[in-house]
Amino acid sequence: MLKIFKYLKPIEWLMAGAGLLFILTQVWLDLKSPExxxxxxxxxxxxxxxxxEIWLAGAMMLLCTLGSLAATIIVGYFxxxxxxxxxxxxxxxxFNKVExxxxxxxxxxxxxxxxxxxxxxxVQIQMLVTMGLQLIVKAPVTAxxxxxxxxxxxxxxxxxxxxxxAVIIVMVCFLMxxxxxxxxxxxxxxxxxxxxxxxxxxxxxxxxxxxxxxxQEEKFERxxxxxxxxxxxxxxxxxxxxxxxxxxxSGITLAIYWIGAHLIDAAQAMDRLPLFSNMVVFxxxxxxxxxxxxxxxxxxxxxPRASVSAKRVCEVLDAKPSILDGVRSEGxxxxxxxxxxxxxxxxxxxxxxxxxxxxxxxxxxxxxxxxIGSTGSGKSTLINLVPRFYDATDGEILVxxxxxxxxxxxxxxxxxxxxxxxxxxxxxxxxxxxxxxDNGSDDFCEEDIKxxxxxxxxxxxxxxxxxxxxxxxxxxxANVSGGQKQRLSIARAICRKPEIYIFDDSFSALDYKxxxxxxxxxxxxxxxxxxxxxxxxxxxxxxxDQIIVLDEGRIAGRGRHRELLQSCEVYRQIAMSQLSEEELxx
Length: 586
Prior knowledge:
Elements: H1 10-45, H2 51-99, H3 103-109, H4 111-135, H5 138-150, H6 155-202, H7 204-209, H8 213-266, H9 269-317, E1 339-346, E2 356-363, E3 368-373, H10 379-383, E4 394-399, E5 402-403, H11 409-414, E6 416-419, E7 428-429, H12 430-434, H13 446-455, H14 459-464, E8 472-473, H15 482-495, E9 500-504, H16 512-525, E10 530-534, H17 538-541, E11 546-551, E12 554-559, H18 561-567, H19 569-578, H20 581-585
Parallel strand pairs: 3-10, 3-11, 6-9, 9-10
Antiparallel strand pairs: 1-2, 1-4, 4-5, 7-8, 11-12
Helix pairs in contact: 1-2, 1-5, 1-9, 2-4, 4-6, 4-9, 5-9, 6-8, 6-9, 8-9, 13-15, 18-19
């Protein structure tokens, strides 16, 4: 838990220090009030006492109360500010850290867990910081100070107070042993709840198409019941403890007065007034002692869950990215848009075998290289090594003659226009999606956006939308079709004016006519830009300068379309499954 506090800034430590001073002031004023109460009691019971002295003692008691109130408000303000600023910083740090993660780290943590850590876990830490500044310091200071105040005022009362404190300590031990593990488990169950909910929402069409609503409901109910059961367990423990704490507080007051009544009854007349005043003061201080332990119990309730949350947040913040930044921003002089693979092999983390084995090729500036093969042959894996979504296990990948590991990730990505296998759109407008990102140049102008849309064959449907290029795009592009999402994603890559295009099966949702026109316009408008294409359709890659056929992670063939029909059996089988005999002959 203490490890997370290293992210507090000096100004926040200064505010915490100032808060500590006000807490000490508050405790001093709180514990000063019973002294004036004792004085008032003695003055009232002493014949001939001046009324002005009673009023003065009462006024001082009122001032102590008002001063304590002011100090409490100031401490609460400092605590709220520190907690809010700290949680904001943690959320920003988590977000920025996750952005630096490779696919490997994201898979290790899981998307659902990362969402929980950035929201629920941070809230738990904020609550502890806000309440802790007020309670963690105040409770022990109040307890120790109050005990020093009542020391020597009667061993009978001290014994009764000690017994009450012993009961509270037993309850805290019970909390630590039986309830704390449940708080630790709760955060993992929240992760699971987020996962089930997210799966249901993202896969809603499939759920409905397969009439799997009942199955999803049962899965959700299992996750919901697990979380509810754990929460009920902890809530029942707390529901039992709080009334017991109230009973102890009332009981100690009753015990003090009962003991005091017996002591006063057995005392001499001249000793009864001091005993009575001691009883009144002792009861006040005993309540402060019990309240201090009640505050500690509240901290023990919050601490286990916040401690687990802090550990989970630190796991993300302390994670070492597997892909480290280089220092170069440019390749070798005179080289642009050239990609070379030298004996590249790749294995996914914890996998038994390589996904890619000994891949070598070179694609020059302005050329188009295509990758084809059966499902699971490693096409997408290969092409994702260029922007360093993963790093090659063996061999090296060169862009413009420089190993991709030597580039800063920003510089490397600025050279690439990437279109993923699954088209991704963000909530906003058509324009904001096409002009998305930064490639180190000035902001994209309206002309760039429209030209990119025209090349991607997106103009017609965009202009038919209400508000045109300012038309609303829902989260994930839910209000446009699959083919429209792909064309907008392609337009986004074109708008960047990169050195290298990477199309990861990015034409699959397009009809053959649109596919052919788009590739023709792309070749015409982007001459001199290298293209790397993963495709399932022979028609998409027939005109490529170089086609690489992958089979179980190895190169099974290399060449142009006609050459591969003669020399590569794997390619010929794919072609025969998609093209007629006449098309093959021509």
